[in-house]
């Protein structure tokens, strides 16, 4: 197995951030679903109304897909190193 040439930059990759957010999202749902419900209930009503319920179901999946897409998108800030 060979790593990509810039493997040391993995913490800076947008894909890493998206995948970490997805892990946090799904972990929160699995470990403490009651806390997720409590956080949702204390959010201001206008913010809750602005977030469609379908987005909550698909939030983690979207983060995973975004991470995959971010792997193939050019990140010019990393090339300057």
Q: What report would you give on this structure?
A:
The protein has 81 residues and is mainly alpha-helical. It has five helices and no strands. α1 (14-31) crosses α2. The longest helix has 20 residues, at 53-72. The radius of gyration is 16 Å and the shape is elongated. The model has no long low-confidence stretch (mean pLDDT 82).
Short précis:
The protein is mainly α and 81 residues long. 72% of the residues lie in helices and 0% in strands.
Share of helix, binned: over 70%
Helix and strand composition category: mainly alpha
First CA to last CA: what distance?
A: 25 Å
Strand coverage percent: under 5%
List the helices and strands and how they pair.
Elements: H1 14-31, H2 33-42, H3 45-50, H4 53-72, H5 76-79
Helix pairs in contact: 1-2, 1-4
């Amino acid at each position: 197995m060979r790593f990509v040439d810039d493997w040391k930059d993995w913490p800076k990759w947008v894909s890493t951030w998206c995948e970490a957010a997805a892990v946090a999202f799904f972990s929160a749902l699995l470990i403490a679903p009651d806390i997720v419900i409590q956080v949702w209930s204390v959010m201001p009503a206008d913010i809750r109304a602005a977030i469609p319920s379908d987005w909550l179901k698909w939030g983690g999946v979207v983060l995973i897909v975004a991470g995959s897409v971010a792997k193939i998108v050019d990140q010019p800030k990393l090339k300057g190193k």
